[in-house]
Amino acid sequence: MSEQKNKIEFIKNLIAQDPPPADKQLRHNEALLKKIKRRMLLVKAVIIVIYMVLYFVAFGAFMLQNYTDNVVHSICWGTASLHILLWSFVYIQRGNCMNMEELIEKMLDNDEKRRNKNQNLFITIVAIMAFVFSSFLLCRSFFLTNNLKAVQTSVSILWSTIFFLIFYPFRTASLIGILWFEYKKMELNINNSSDGSA
Amino acid sequence: MEEDKISDAILVLRCQKRDESAFQELVNRWEPRLYYYLRRVVESDSAVWDVLQETWLAVFQHIRKLENPRKFPAWLYQIAHNKTVSMLRKEIKYVQITDEQMSNYCENNFVFCYDIEQVEAIHELLTKLKLAHREVITLYFLEGFSISEMAQIIGVSEGTVKSRLYYAKHKLHELLKGAKNV
User: Fold this and answer.
1) B1 at A interface, C-beta within 8 A
2) Which residues in chain B have their CB less than 8 angstroms from residue A36's CB?
3) What structural domains and CATH numbers belong to chain B?
4) Would you state the pLDDT for residue B133?
5) Quick one: pLDDT at residue B102?
6) How far is CA B44 from CA A23, B20, B50, in A?
């Protein structure tokens, strides 16, 4: 114990031999925080711009749906606006889910972590494939002449989006549940150990 | 000591969630140590501050990739080392030492005791060591890193770290003896 104390004292004294000058440190920290804030703002601005562009494109598609005379095109533009909007929501939900998963991963061992990562990768690949395939179907349906076929394609396209729009919030909720149980377990353990020591 | 490690790990977790105040606290906690380390390996004072800033920016940028928050100290020093090396390479001052033959028998030949009365002398004598030796012994004194952790930080083999540590301890021991005799 005394050796440990000695070591701590030694390190403290060693650092004290050449401490950073207070004024320079203050200036450096201010500059550092300014840079970091600027970077964070830049990231936020980029995300906001991306979403603004997406919403404008979706709104543009919605407007085209109102102004076109062709029934198939009207259906397709309407579907396209919903397709863009809903997939942007799916992406937001995925972000939330990933944040929760990062927290959960800290509690897992290496095997479980790997399994979890593979599972997430699989879901992401399926989601990307669903997006690409449905976008392809949507583009193709613009060239259809049959109204009924166009409606059927539109509905089937939106189903895949809806699936992920439901899937991610449920997954996030289940992760929150796991975290809550872990927290309760920890709380109980703390209470037990403090009762035992008392 | 253990409490500090736990609170550091919590700060790292908060930083991973992009908590600015946690990052500020982390900087305040680690800056004096990091500054001391960088002052031992970088000559000019302005370069030290540049490397320090680059290190913290890299920490902020990549902290989400750090899987185990308890490994933050080694990870931080690794970034600082890499930034220092890339800066020193521009000035061609970083010399790789290839004396790995010593590694087989030099382990723990000198057990350094943390003698508080010798702190000032050690601090002064550190400047007389070669850069690569000084770096290893500073990491050893400051954080008590293991050989494998130091090897990971510096990016060399464990054998090289062992031999550098041996030389550094040996030289410091001799210098301390000389200083006492004077």
Assistant:
1) yes
2) 20, 23, 57, 60
3) 2-91 (1.10.1740.10), 101-181 (1.10.10.10)
4) 85
5) 37
6) 17, 30, 10
